[in-house]
Amino acid sequence: MGDALGTFGHGRMTFLKQTLSRTLSYIFSERFRGVVLTDKHPAHLARHRLDTVFSRIRLVSLMFGVLTVCWIPIDVVTLDARSWMILGALRLLVAGVFFALAGLPEKDVTHGAALALVALMMANPLVLHATAEVLLSDAPLQGMALVNANLYAALPFVIMAGLSLFPLVALESLLLAAPLFVLAALIPALSGSFSWVEVISHGWVLGLLLGICMLAGMIQVFYMEALLHRAHHDPLTGALTRRSGTEVVEFMFRLASDKSAPLAVAFLDIDNFKSINDGFGHEAGDEALRKTVKALKSELRDADTIVRWGGEEFVLLLGDTAVDGARVVIDRIMEKWLGERPDGGPLTASIGVAERLSDHANTWDDLIQLADQRMYEAKRAGKARTIFGPTLTVAA
User: Fold this and answer.
1) What are the pLDDT digits (tens) for 230-266?
2) For residue 103, is pLDDT > 70?
3) Could you please report the per-residue DSSP string of 329-366?
4) Please, are residues 368 and 265 in contact by the beta-carbon 8 Å criterion?
5) C-alpha torsion 252→366→295→309, nearest 10
């Protein structure tokens, strides 16, 4: 019996140690950083996340706009004439803002714009909350009027809970929720009903709700990243597929155009790849492709994107990168190249580089085609080299 208990206790300790080890490994991993901050998000995740946030802003705003208007008869029935007239007029104004948000046209939004729209949507009902607290704080309320006033008082909790609808990282949730904690203390002071007990209890409940909302948002971001990775990545190399890469380069080009920022594209074709398949078999060719992506990832930033354009062709998307910056990246790649060929020689590539501003590209397709054209020029010029433009060629 003692041996059985000892074995059970040892097994339990082993399980706890393994669980703790896995938890700590995750906390210090890039994947955990991705649900706390956005600085390491790849372009395809950033685009889909912002698209999701924007579409939910429109949907939630439409629902709240309707509910805001439908609440006016309840105010009329339960409150005195002065209160319901003020709140009714304010409700129409708030509903107008909600409907304006719901009617925003489909478009790509920047990270800052998306957060600003969420903040505006949250601030809308807070105006009702603050006004009702001031209007009704000294009124002799009872029955349904008291119920209505308590519902107005609960609006900050409803708003906080609404954050859980959005795929937000932890820092974004904290930033958006901070004003709610300030108002939880400020509004009672303005209405003359300040109470430390009430402020602490409200702050405590808001904190619990914030924790739940942060967890919900982080889980959404985590699963969004996992699903997008499966759907958008080439299973052999881990690079983006051409279809997904096309969406990303289009998105990055629009953002760069909106900000008048540079965007560099490198089109890369592995030299003499057919000879690897013919001489050493397709497994060796697959290994060469995997080596290529691994080598490229080691030289690129987390925010840069690798797309398997087709066969042995790859496209590198370098956001906020001018020609000089692209030259630094390409020099690092050419210094080590992409690993070894099966025969022991270096695995080289022909590369063409184009940049949105310096090459005056009007569309993302023009940018890709120009980089592709320069890649073929590099191949015709002897391979194992990069062409940046008519006057700049770098050979190994």
Assistant:
1) 778 898 998 999 988 898 899 899 889 988 999 999 9
2) yes
3) HHHHHHHHTT-B-TTSSB--EEEEEEETTTTT-SSHHH
4) yes
5) 100
Which amino acid is located at 170 in the chain?
A
Query: What type of residue sits at position 228?
Result: L
Give yes or no for residue 5 having a pLDDT over 50. Answer: no
Q: In the structure encoding, which two tokens stand for residue 149, read together? A: 């006033």
What's the rounded Cα separation, in Å, for the pair 49 and 185? 33
- Helices 282-299 and 323-336, packing angle to 10 deg: 130
Q: Tell me: do 99 and 130 sit in the same domain.
A: yes
**Residue range of the domain that includes 192:** 37-230
151-197 pLDDT, tens digit per residue, is 998 899 999 999 999 999 999 999 999 988 888 777 776 666 667 77
Higher pLDDT, 149 or 92: 92
**Residue 390, class by beta-carbon neighbours within 10 Å (0-12 exposed, 13-18 middle, 19+ buried)?**
exposed
Number of residues assigned to the chain: 396
> CB under 8 Å to 179, separation ≥6 — which residues?
119, 122, 123, 126
pTM confidence score: 0.66
- Answer yes or no: is 235 within a domain: no
Binned at pLDDT 50, 70 and 90, residue 10 comes out as low
Domain count for the chain, please give it. 3
What is the side-by-side strand order in the sheet with 392-395?
305-310, 313-319, 263-270, 349-355, 385-389, 392-395
Residues 6 and 58 in one domain: no
Three-class secondary structure of residue 195 per DSSP: coil
Look-up: residue for tokens 């990243």? 225
| pLDDT tens per residue, range 107-144 | 778 889 999 999 999 999 989 988 888 888 777 878 89
Please enumerate in sequence order all residues whose Cβ is within 8 A of that of 388, keeping only pairs 6 or more positions apart, or say none: 323, 326, 327, 330, 353, 374, 394
Task: For residue 383, give the DSSP letter.
Answer: S
> Angle at the Cα of 158 (from 153 to 163), degrees rounded to 5?
145
List helix spans (H) across 37-169: 43-70, 72-78, 81-102, 111-136, 144-153, 155-162
